[in-house]
Amino acid sequence: MNLTMSGHHLEITPAIREYMSSKLTRVTRHFDNVIDVNVIMSVDKLVQKVEATLHVRGNDIFAEATHADLYAAIDSLIDKLDRLVLKHKEKRAEKRYEGGHRHLNDQLAE
After folding, report:
1. pTM here?
2. Residue of 48, 45, 38, 35 whose CA lies nearest to 75
3. Would you tell me which CATH number, out of the four given (3.40.50.150, 3.30.160.100, 3.90.180.10, 1.20.1250.20), belongs to the domain 2-109?
């Protein structure tokens, strides 16, 4: 997994980078086919904003979160990404199941 982090009006410190990396392991624990992760952190007055795009095979998953505290925004973002990744994983499993199920029905119809 390639992790790219950038900051707008914000310096990405090693502590922030380590915190984000450790939190992303939760997402990759549920779905290990994550190819790239692009994270953009920005500050606008008193609002901390974190955006992330996960590139998985066949799809891009985007989420964003805002909060007054940067670490709280990262936690919220990880929660959203985790839900979206699980939803994507379920959709892939349904397509795989439906494809095999249709094939079996076609054989029975003949």
Report:
1. 0.81
2. 48
3. 3.30.160.100
Domain ranges of the chain: 2-109
Q: Is the pLDDT of residue 109 over 70?
A: no
Q: With contact defined as beta carbons under 8 Å apart, do 52 and 108 qualify? A: no
Structure tokens at 21: 């990396």
Average of per-residue pLDDT across 40-52: 94
pLDDT above 70 (res 105): no
pLDDT at 35 over 80: yes
Q: Which amino acid would we find at residue 106? A: D
Q: Is residue 50 within 8 Å of 39, Cβ to Cβ?
A: yes
Cα 62 to Cα 81: distance, rounded to the nearest angstrom: 8
From CA 27, how far away is CA 82, in angstroms rounded? 5
Token pair of 89 as six digits:
């994983």
How is residue 11 written in tokens?
Answer: 């310096």
Percent of the chain surpassing pLDDT 70 = 86
